[in-house]
Amino acid sequence: MKHQEGALNLISPSAGAGARLYCQSWSPEGRSNAVIILVHGYDEHSGRYGYFAEHCVKNGFAVHSLDHWGHGKSEGVNGFIPDFSVYHDGLDALIDGLPADQQVLPRILVGHSLGGLISTTYLLKNQSQFVAAVLSGAAIKATEEPSSLMKGLSKLLSKVAPKMGVLALDANGVSRDSEVVADYLADPLVSGSKISARLAVEMMANMDLVQREAAKVTLPLLFLHGGNDSLAAPKGAIFLHEHISSDEKLLKIYPELFHEIFNEPEKDKVLTDMTNWIEGILAK
After folding, report:
1. Is residue 164 part of a domain?
2. Sequence-distant (≥ 6) Cβ neighbours of residue 51 within 8 angstroms
3. What is the CB neighbour count within 10 angstroms for residue 130?
4. Is 229 a known active-site residue?
5. Choosing from 25, 158, 259, 273, which is the catalytic residue?
6. E strand or H helix at 164, and its extent?
7. Which among 173, 51, 180, 42 has a CA at the least distance from the CA of 111?
8. What is the pLDDT of residue 4?
9. Which tens digit of pLDDT belongs to each residue from 112-168?
10. Residues 19-40: what's their mean pLDDT?
């Protein structure tokens, strides 16, 4: 397996322009069958997906990922985002920077958690770039729908105190594997920052966007979700599965699993389910 690290420069006219983003890739020693663009979740980073990448490489896929603006080894402010489009700008830069020999290969978008929301909103305008997509624990619906008062207060804070932390994530909801939780808490690239008022508003706005425009998605799509996910509601995956226009779509909810299904004790089964589905799409 070949592993490479690099940096991307955001040169688009977004609020994050000029920032340097960390990126890395894992590829088979020989020819790759397809390219997976991996989009990580909130307050984590691409380095937490080594096992995921190894599994994919063994099945002939190259994996490319980046640390989002404000995450991991990339520049930016932890817990904050000036505008949701900065996440899309990062994906644009990552895809534009693919090696020439991989630019022509089939491309699959895989997004986890916040990365699932980023991926879905990205697909609304860019699905022609991919042959399929996979959403893992996607943040499409809140576990508890915020009240109108809370939404209004969040919008106010987003304007007057955009970097104020308003929502903390419970690390115990990450995985049933205590070692995974301990490693997550000890990871120096996991900031532990609360979601800021601005990011919270941007997330809610983009959740609403996805729910309104779900029917625009026609790409083959696999939904993977833990049934006991306390950080991203399984009902979001169910909603998208019911409302997208794709002829080829599959929803798999694993009853006992927590949020990070790629880091649960059953991760090998989940990863095999994913790569088997992708191989089935590529064979058609």
Report:
1. no
2. 262, 263, 267
3. 21
4. yes
5. 259
6. none
7. 42
8. 97
9. 999 999 999 999 999 999 999 999 999 999 877 766 766 777 788 888 888 888 888
10. 96
The whole-angstrom distance between residue 104's C-alpha and the CA centroid of its chain comes to 23
Is 40 among the residues known to form the active site?
no
216 secondary structure, DSSP code: G
Predicted TM-score (pTM) of this structure: 0.96
CA pair distance 275, 59, nearest whole angstrom: 7
* 79 Ramachandran zone, left/alpha/beta (phi>0; psi -120 to 50): left
Active-site residue (options: 27, 229, 241, 273): 229
Strands 20-27 and 34-39: unpaired
CATH code for the domain of 97: 3.40.50.1820
- List the end-to-end C-alpha distance of the chain, in Å, as a whole number: 27
Active-site option among 46, 65, 113, 158: 113
Q: Is 109 within the bounds of a domain?
A: yes
Choose between 11 and 233: higher pLDDT. Answer: 233
Q: Is 236 exposed, middle or buried (0-12, 13-18, 19+ CB in 10 A)?
A: buried
Say whether 259 is catalytic: yes
Domain span at residue 52 reads: 2-145+171-181+207-282
Q: Residue 130 falls within a domain, yes or no?
A: yes
SS3 state at 196: strand
What is the domain count for the chain? Answer: 1
**44: three-class secondary structure by DSSP:** coil
Beta-carbon contacts of residue 42 (< 8 Å; ≥ 6 apart) = 71, 113, 114, 139, 169, 195
Total number of residues shown for the chain: 284
Task: Compute the half-sphere exposure of residue 55: CA atoms within 13 Å on the CB side of its CA.
Answer: 16
Q: For 35-78, how does the pLDDT look when each residue is reduced to its tens digit (9 = 90+)?
A: 999 999 999 999 999 999 999 999 999 999 999 999 999 999 99
Residue 267 inside a domain? The answer is yes
